[in-house]
Amino acid sequence: MGPVTLRDVAQLAGVSIATASKALNGQPQVRASTRDRVIRAAEQLNFSPNTLAQGLITQRTGTVGLLTSDLEGRFSIPILMGAEDAFGSDQTSVFLCDARGDAIREKHHLRALLSRRVDGLIVVGARPDARPSLGRDLPVPVIYAYSPSEDPADLSLVTDNVGGGRLAVDHLIRHGRRRIAHITGDATYGAAQDRATGALARLAEEGLQLAGDQVWFGSWSEAWGRSATRMLLERDPGVDAVFAGSDEIARGVLDVLHQEGLDIPQRVAVIGFDNWNILAANARPPLSTIDMNLEQLGRLAAQRLFAAIDGTLRSGASAAGASASGASASGALAPGTETVPCRLVTRESTG
Amino acid sequence: MGPVTLRDVAQLAGVSIATASKALNGQPQVRASTRDRVIRAAEQLNFSPNTLAQGLITQRTGTVGLLTSDLEGRFSIPILMGAEDAFGSDQTSVFLCDARGDAIREKHHLRALLSRRVDGLIVVGARPDARPSLGRDLPVPVIYAYSPSEDPADLSLVTDNVGGGRLAVDHLIRHGRRRIAHITGDATYGAAQDRATGALARLAEEGLQLAGDQVWFGSWSEAWGRSATRMLLERDPGVDAVFAGSDEIARGVLDVLHQEGLDIPQRVAVIGFDNWNILAANARPPLSTIDMNLEQLGRLAAQRLFAAIDGTLRSGASAAGASASGASASGALAPGTETVPCRLVTRESTG
DNA sequence: TTGTATGCGTTATCAG
DNA sequence: CTGATAACGCATACAA
């Protein structure tokens, strides 16, 4: 038996295809008893409408594309999950495409997605710095998440890294720490700079200097966390807290502090960044850290996208509207960069 | 301007829609010069065919559904990536759906996917044990990856955990270790049992006993790795190698060995399982481990699915075929469980 | 070699 | 309230 179509349902219910369609779509202009008959027939046949045909007519497919450069990575997944549950599973499905950081592949995927008539796109970059825009003249709304677009005319949703840095240091200060060091990753990452900026700002408010007299930039690895900690202890043995730019780095910090016999958190408190559960929750002791709220970022992206899609449709339908706004074809997306606040996660490494 | 359609292309090229279609689809029955004209017109307009319309006709959408219960997890992602690149980015796109372990949500997703007329399905479970089948009468081929289906009539692709356990112990033996312990996760996981079985088999071949006189089952956590190692060292201080059932556990093992001042790998060698890069590569020392070849598993799943889809189509087309086989509607999938071998990854923790 | 006509499964616009 | 009928964008058997 081939797939069951609306015709089969109509036939079983003894009505025309048109009536069956109206009945199932909740159109008011159909007698209650007829509607029941149709619905029962549909259930009996386990009918599910062919969304391809629907999309062809309504110009909406109920699909969005998620274009990422960081699949193996830790960032796109939470964003994807947030987006997925904001959309609602039976409303919208998401195409996941990984460009693996390759511009050519990205173009291919983009083409494929547009060809599939997705209603919108979410672009997730591999690192939190600005990335090239997909262009201004796309037929669907686009939202850049995690990595902002280089084009200020696009809408980007990013983590508030400055706020995150401030949050971490604030937490340490509230726990009575005064000699706070900052060990972080690659200095070419905007996120590293921003977190440091936030940390320094909070220290300055308290009239404090950075322990070790510098921000220790390096790489986003456990190994760097270890070697930086050794250097730090040599330069400033009295340090009583370390703010690590990532949980990986924090693990390296913990490792060396243990080697040196320094109690955590009594002697030195440690806080990380990312709340990467496998690293943070299993650390010894479990690691306090800053969570970027990526699921929320994903949800927000989905909501914005949804609004824009609805806007596109409405504006397309209301040709008689009096609106003189210069909204682009991609819908009602307010351009600019929105920022999502971080959240402190307290575990034992800060007491 | 709305999306450009084949009509626009035909018009610009000065031919009929039918001719334009044939030209673009590489049908032989069209003059070369005409074809060129059409192709140029298509490029000029940046035409891309509406796959919805195509799918409606050809009964193939060029999409597959990936139904997972483990999105945040480490397993579905490599599988997804393998599948993605086996399909080829411009041929097939994949819908990713996370059921989050909820049967209701899974049903919803399944319905949505079928309604979108995916050509096939890959189901990835949350743990390597058998999971309920989606059923036998689905209109598309289904492949179960990582978690096998409970129904032997389905096709499942799983990791060779027995072989993996054997591989790990074999590696230790080849490096001259004789007093080998095994610390692993939850005993209710088939994978834990299988890996232990493989390990024991290889030990038996060598006439060796397990150090500590037992398999240390517990949980898949670093904390368990630590406490089990302490118990182990107490019971059998002479142990010269540990095979950990996961990289997380291995990290815990390493931690305690360091605390006890036991050199790795000189005094005790350690090997993990999963090759979870963030844990294994950054360990001190970097951790040898067993890789489950999940990308390959994903590729294989994609290939099998592809073959089945082609089979479905061919068998549907050749109504005059002489085949008397009782192949199901879901295509030519050979039922049963296929096994993908593991791979040894050597780093410094085993010398 | 090219064009015409038909249909894929739905929704939407009309008459009845 | 219900039922023909025309799209939606494309592929294909058939006619020219």
Automatic annotation (TrEMBL), chains A, B:
One of its GO terms (molecular function) is DNA-binding transcription factor activity. Keywords: DNA-binding, Transcription, Transcription regulation. Residues 4-58 form the HTH lacI-type domain. It comes from Actinoplanes utahensis. SMART domains: HTH_LACI. Pfam families: LacI, Peripla_BP_3. CDD domains: HTH_LacI, PBP1_sucrose_transcription_regulator. This is LacI family transcriptional regulator.
